[in-house]
Amino acid sequence: MCGIAGLWLSEQADATRLGDRVSRMNDALYHRGPDGGDVWLDEQEGIALGQRRLAIIDLSDAGKQPMHSSNGRYVMVYNGEIYNAPELREKLASANITWRGHSDTEVILECIAHWGLRDTIKRLIGMFAIALWDRQKKKLFLVRDRLGIKPLYWSRYDGHIGFASEVKGLLAGDAISREVNQTGLDAYLRFGYVPSGLSIYAHAKMLKPGHILEISSHDQATENAYWSVEDAVLNGQTHAWSGDDQSAIDALEDLLRDAVQRRMVADVPLGAFLSGGIDSSTVVALMQSVSDRPVKTFSVGFEDEAFNEAAFAGEVAKHLKTDHTELYVTPKDALDLVPKLSETYDEPFFDSSAIPTYLISALTRKHVTVALSGDGGDETFGGYNRYLWAKQLSAAAGSIPFGSGLVSRGLTMLSPDHWDKLVGLIPGKKSTSAIGDKIHKAAPLLAIRDDIDRYHALISLFDPDKLRGKHASSKKFRVPGEKFCRNRHLDYVSSMQAMDTMMYMVDDVLTKVDRASMANSLEVRVPFIDHRVIEFGWRLPARLKMNGSVGKYALRQILYKYVPREMIDRPKTGFGVPLAQWLRGPLHEWMGDHLANEALYTDFGLDRRQIEKLRSEHMSGKRNWGHQLWTIAMLSDWQKRWLA
């Protein structure tokens, strides 16, 4: 695992300070690779490649980068891990290569020299962001793994091409200006993150997952896909599982065990995150099933019981006999981290579960260098609560042949407080917590007749057109895969799963995990996001994903073999923090300072009255606008750190 960066200057640019600039880019990525760093420079061609190393496989100097192929044609820097490197190395036995070490970096390079770039990439199992310079053809290639596990930004600005694992690398090398991309800003306000293909900066882009960018000159760059979720869906439909349900579950277990076991290979200590939920428990159970010693597991807990999963994790760890470490954090521990978030996430990022993700990464790094995580199970196997909610809303809207808008407006005629009191009168109703707020949030969705449009509304925080008015960008960003889902007539849940896999999983979940873990120099591996698992998931019948109101049905059947179902069958809580309460309490002053930031209104064109209305309703307890207010506050925090 590493951080990579580089610059390729135009013919007219002065290359005398090229090495210094890329060294600065490298230094900005030190946290991604504290075990070493180097820069390769070809001053005549005006190109330099840099890398910061977190040594995981082959800790010797033979694994250092930038690395040259044995034939001298290619120079490469790379961030990631390739889990089938030993098999690929065996296939090159007839090439009579004199190997310098046993790093996967060297295997990738020699495969490219032997088979070519595209054929090599298609053979890789793993996570990767690659920058490859072809010295013979004078071309630069940038490659991102199929599902976007590892990040890679690139830029074209002021007479050069730049690339880096994080935007702060581009900024450090003056590879971009600090001009804001209005489309990226609108996308952030809608989704809470900036999707791949864009950046918050006008002259930078995040390379899309599953794509190769071929740069022939400073005026010619071609981006092509080598893998896509759409193809995985189509292949899954064409080769749908034809056997019985149990054989499908058994095949999935075998595949997951292989994905887990491949990710347990390292020359450094290794462990796993354990929340006690289905995904992380399945990963740990499979790890323990192939390990001859107790697996090291880690969890964090909160004093607030509504957000505390540590007790569940402890029960699972005890049952599986892992070597378990847990840390209970106080609100102060978590709140002290808030000012560091904009440094860690150098684009605005709203997901408040970045806080516990950072904390568990910091805890884990004290004991190991690599950790396996359960991320990705929800998207592939139907685990999100919103899949059930959206399905129910769709059915409810469809059952109202006329006047669904009228019903929607009628539901909001009563205030949230009145709904809370009314529902509280129902005999046997145990809890009415925020039921009125939930009704007010769900009611507008009933008025939307189109399922895909309802999905957009469900995942949107703001309508940028309303929040920014005339300042909003004319370019509207729609979720990748929307047209595909419509054209293929996928059922509603499958459509949501596909679109979540293409954007939410990549740009929220994986971004959160990558930045939080790498800020602590920890490598996180994600078995559920093995492309083979994703492809197999699309072959499964829908009933093995969401069975009635039960999500992740197939995964549950696998996990029940290792952990008693009473430890697992409980409501999904998620990995979050009591954000609404914090903004009304210990973060009230912090939020007020950020909402008073004039740049929000003068530079970004936000509607001050709309934001003040949200703040007032939230503070009074009338509505829960915690996510929306946090989104604006984090935008302000980012602006103060990176633009001011």
From TrEMBL:
What are its GO cellular component terms? cytosol
Q: What GO biological process terms are annotated to this protein in UniProt?
A: asparagine biosynthetic process
Cross-referenced SUPFAM superfamilies: Adenine nucleotide alpha hydrolases-like (SSF52402), N-terminal nucleophile aminohydrolases (Ntn hydrolases) (SSF56235)
The Enzyme Commission number assigned here is 6.3.5.4
- Keyword Transferase among record annotations: no
Family annotation (Gene3D superfamilies) = Glutamine Phosphoribosylpyrophosphate, subunit 1, domain 1 (3.60.20.10), HUPs (3.40.50.620)
Provide the Glutamine amidotransferase type-2 domain boundaries: 2-218
Q: Which residues bind L-glutamine?
A: 104
Pfam entry (one): Asn_synthase
Sorted UniProt keywords: Amino-acid biosynthesis, Asparagine biosynthesis, ATP-binding, Glutamine amidotransferase, Nucleotide-binding
Q: What class of enzyme is it?
A: ligase
Which residues are catalytic?
2
Per the UniProt record, the site (Important for beta-aspartyl-AMP intermediate formation) maps to: 375
Q: Which GO terms describe its molecular function?
A: asparagine synthase (glutamine-hydrolyzing) activity; ATP binding
Which pathway does UniProt place it in? Amino-acid biosynthesis; L-asparagine biosynthesis; L-asparagine from L-aspartate (L-Gln route): step 1/1
> Which reaction equation describes what this protein catalyses?
L-aspartate + L-glutamine + ATP + H2O = L-asparagine + L-glutamate + AMP + diphosphate + H(+)
Binding-site positions, ATP: 300, 373-374
The entry's family comment says:
Belongs to the asparagine synthetase family.
The record, for PANTHER family, names: ASPARAGINE SYNTHETASE, ASPARAGINE SYNTHETASE (GLUTAMINE-HYDROLYZING)
Spell out the protein name for this chain.
asparagine synthase (glutamine-hydrolyzing)
- Name the source organism: Thalassospira tepidiphila MCCC 1A03514
Taxonomic lineage per UniProt?
Bacteria, Pseudomonadati, Pseudomonadota, Alphaproteobacteria, Rhodospirillales
